[in-house]
Amino acid sequence: MKDNGLLALAVERCERAQLDMVVEECAELIQAIQKHRRQEDNAGTPMADIIEKGVDVELCLEQLKTIAAEPVLWNHFRTLKLNRLVRKLGVKREA
Fold first, then answer.
1. Sign of the C-alpha dihedral, residues 20, 70, 75, 6?
2. Of 6, 18, 76, 88, whose Cβ has the fewest other Cβ atoms within 10 Å?
3. What average pLDDT does range 8-25 have in this prediction?
4. Is residue 16 part of a domain?
5. pLDDT digits (tens, 9 = 90+) for 26-77
């Protein structure tokens, strides 16, 4: 089964559990980043841990897109957020 099929099946079978998983994975990523930042020499939490948690969040976000089932709205907010970032950074966005 392809990746997108796996994510869709997970959502179909247990939407509420998947939403709970998004919350949990985001919390774990936040915790890993905070541990990393607290260590002055960055010896506490290796970057690999942060990357692993980031991948978990990325997969959960893909499932969230499926749960939302609103690709137009998702893309609308994505564009708004990117445009805000462009203004904040004072750069021009390439098409």
1. positive
2. 88
3. 83
4. yes
5. 999 999 999 888 886 656 668 899 999 999 999 999 888 888 878 899 899 9
Instruction: Please enumerate, as own/partner, the contacts of 40-43 that have beta carbons within 8 Å and a separation of 24 or more.
Output: none
Considering the entire predicted model, what is its pTM?
Answer: 0.73
Listed in sequence order, the DSSP H helices in the chain are 3-13, 15-38, 47-68, 71-89
Question: Taking Cα atoms as reference points, which of 22, 7, 2, 16 lies closest to residue 63?
Answer: 7
Backbone Cα Rg of the chain: 17
Answer whether 60's CB lies under 8 Å from 21's CB. Answer: yes
Residue 7: which domain range? 3-69
Q: 86 lies in a domain?
A: no
Number of domains within the chain: 1
